[in-house]
Amino acid sequence: IEAEGWQMPEVFTLTGKDDKTPIYGAFWKPVNFDSSKKYPVIDATYTGPHTQRFPRTFSQALSNQAMANLGFIVVAIDGLGTAGRSKAFRDVSYMNMGDNLRDHVNAINYLGKKYAYVDAERVGIFGHSAGGFDAAHAVLAFPDFYKVAVASSGDHDFRMEKAWWPEMYMGYPVDERYEEVSNITMAPNLKGKLLLVHGGIDDNVNPSATFKLAEALIKANKQFDMLIIPSQRHGYTGKYNTYFQKKRWNYFIENLLDKQTLWDFNLD
After folding, report:
1. Going from the N-terminus, what domains does the chain have, and what CATH number goes with each?
2. Is 124:40 a contact under the CB 8 Å cutoff?
3. CB 122 within 8 A of CB 40
4. Does the structure show a pLDDT above 90 at 3?
5. What is the DSSP string of 46-114?
6. DSSP-derived 3-state class of residue 243
7. How far apart are CA 138 and CA 55, in angstroms?
8. Tens digits of per-residue pLDDT, 135-148?
């Protein structure tokens, strides 16, 4: 694959939002990369306190290449509040999961200043499950920074999730903190483009939160897009997943690249 132009994602580091702790990330460039061009950025997010996004295996190093090849710089960032470092590092997000993306914003701005080919004025984001919360939260909490989001199977309000997951990281009792970080509460903030996606029979993250977010956006008179995938649970499979993949790619092609969309991608 190196003979076909593939390169390992590039690693970067900067100081986190506490102004003292180093955080790490990686970014993928298109195989036909041209340093004289300026590329929009897509944030591949999942800030759940039990996970990491920085690639640690060969398969993870390949994971975002297809999207990068469409004409994007794709980034994966492990900010303060995520796993794999120390308890103190992870505890930054405890009872405060609504602020997990601040390190991502800082990191993308950092890359935009360091590399002329990184366009930090055109930034998109996608994520699934807790990453789906992130993606929608990005365009609501940072509406002037993130311009396009695809949020799939998102737990948009932790009060509507299965009890054990949010209570583990947001604490108990369920109080005003849950209200403050809810995407449903923040729906009136939307400025950019948002695609909400959910499996119709998801029994892990119930589709009701996506429906409630859609309702809140309608009440706030905000334009958005939504795709409900019938017969699919929390993870999409087979032709359903292929369909979703193409919809996600096209959403960024149309709204971040401002180019003609495709449908018959070569997925062999």
Report:
1. 10-255 (3.40.50.1820)
2. yes
3. yes
4. no
5. ---TT---S--SHHHHHTTHHHHTTT-EEEEEE-TT-SSS-HHHHHTTTT-GGGTTHHHHHHHHHHHHH
6. helix
7. 22
8. 999 999 999 999 99
